[in-house]
Amino acid sequence: MHVFVTGGTGTIGSAVATELLANGHTVLALARSDKSAQALTDAGAQVLRGQLADLDVLRAGAAQSDGVISLAFGTDYSTEEAVARSVAEESAALAALGEELLGSDRPLVTVSGTPWVPGRVSTEADPVSTEGPVGGRGRSVNAVLDLASRGVRSVAVRMPRTVHIEGKGGFAGLLTEQARRTGVSGYPGDGTQRWPAVHALDAAVLFRLALESAPAGTAWHAVADEGDAVRDIATVIGRRLGLPVKPVPQENFGPFGPIFAMDQPSSSAYTREVLGWQPTHPSLLEDLENIQP
């Protein structure tokens, strides 16, 4: 396939682009800067210059592709307003991509988070949240999946709270950044809450499998580690950085504080069984050993 990818230089996107190219696909990737364009060219992808807010550019990219993987999302998580802007921008982008693909039976693969279900491990059958700081993202992904009835092979790959590579990325990466800033490897609550995780290279394989074969209107879980205790994550971070490890108020984590404090383990048993996905790369706790002091 000739695949249009947004977010192709991010933690997940760069791995996805490499995975696609290594498996016989060609890639057209959105790039908003010279640096991103050069990185994509070096990886072997074709480049379409523009930003996620350039809806005409997105439509043009989708029009010349056999399928789309949309991964781009804002990087400013400092306030609820900033997160809301990123959610709105992503929602408009997905709507534009979906419009371009209507009636074509081409795949549109997008990303969301794994659900939170009180008292148990979430599965692929559970709905994503449409409330809270990123509830708008759940609503826009649901709208994409609804396009299955309009001739789009729409698919959602649900990512865990931490997508990591070389000790960086995801919510664990935010804990590391906070620890460097404050001098404390902190965690909210008692630290027994669990976060699922996946290595970026394993996640990339699932995006390729979803693009190639997932049925329209389906959601899949890119979960390798069902749930690591946040205290254990903070402990490795603290040891690697030589910092004390202790609980801190959830307000210290800004708009993500309430999410950080939640117990949110997740399963990928159905995804593994149906799509044949098998993670092979290091777990989160193993990968965090790559953090440099």
Automatic annotation (TrEMBL):
Transmembrane segments: none annotated. SUPFAM superfamilies: NAD(P)-binding Rossmann-fold domains. Residues 3-215 form the NAD-dependent epimerase/dehydratase domain. One of its GO terms (cellular component) is cytoplasm. GO terms for molecular function: aldehyde dehydrogenase (NAD+) activity. It comes from the Bacteria. This is Nucleoside-diphosphate-sugar epimerase. It comes from Thermocatellispora tengchongensis. The lineage of its organism: Bacteria, Bacillati, Actinomycetota, Actinomycetes, Streptosporangiales.
